[in-house]
Amino acid sequence: MADTLDTSAFRRGLKIEIDKEPWEIVEFQHVKPGKGSAFVRTRIKNLLSGRTIDRTFKSGDVVGKPDVEEKEMQYLYKEGDHYNFMDNKTFDQTFLTEEQMGDAKNFIKDNTTTHIMFFNGKAIGVTLPNSMDLKVVKCDPGVRGDTVSGATKPATLETGYQVNVPLFINEGETLRIDTRTGEYLTRVAG
Predict the structure, then answer these.
(1) CB atoms < 10 A from the CB of 176, how many?
(2) Of the candidates 62, 58, 71, which has an alpha carbon nearest to the alpha carbon of residue 3?
(3) Which of 8, 12, 42, 170: disulfide with 142, CB 3.0–4.6 Å?
(4) Is the pLDDT assigned to residue 68 strictly greater than 90?
(5) pLDDT at 102 (0 to 100)
(6) What's the pLDDT score for residue 1?
(7) Are 68 and 117 in contact (CB under 8 A)?
(8) Burial class (CB within 10 angstroms; exposed 0-12, middle 13-18, buried 19+) of 18
(9) Which domains does the chain have, with CATH numbers?
């Protein structure tokens, strides 16, 4: 643990190492009580298991800086429950399991450019663009003039993911989906 960070460097998205595991700070709050010393209240997510915990650090506590690297890679194909990615510069290939993919497996399609996170040289996760354009392969037909505010229907996308969409959406249309929340954003022309 050559590189270290103290609590003053904490910010959202910062990667830290605790007990030889990489964590990402999801939320943090510096607290200065009237009595006693200051502390930092955090919510951190384990980058290996995906679980989230709340943890409090005393002001000035030191944590490790993990050996985490992100590489831009292109998604090639799925083989069994493994997803195959290729480095665009070196053409090296790496695999992620369905578990490591998390929710990203609902939105990824061939040739998507992603960021693969490596911890100590081993692939541990993927970051997709914030939104993906996906085609509707199955949904009830849209009805002209059916514009009831807020009414939705289920639609199945080309990746197999099911999302609630407004009533006017039809099969064959392309939709922009937020990969962070899994929600419908807008219809894409073309």
Answers:
(1) 14
(2) 62
(3) 170
(4) no
(5) 82
(6) 42
(7) yes
(8) middle
(9) 4-64 (2.30.30.30), 68-127 (2.40.50.140), 131-188 (2.40.50.140)
Contacts of 34 (CB under 8 A, 6+ apart): none
What is the tens place of the pLDDT at every residue in 112-136? Answer: 999 999 998 888 888 888 899 999 9
Helix, strand, coil shares of the chain, percent, nearest 5, are 5, 55, 40
User: Per the confidence metrics, is the pTM higher than 0.85?
Assistant: no
**Residues found in the chain:** 190
- In three-state secondary structure terms, 167 is coil
Distance CA 146, CA 135 (A): 21
Sole residue written with tokens 């497996």: 105
Burial per residue of 90-119, b for 16 or more beta-carbon CB atoms within 10 angstroms, e otherwise: eeeebebeeebbeebbbbbeeebebebbeb
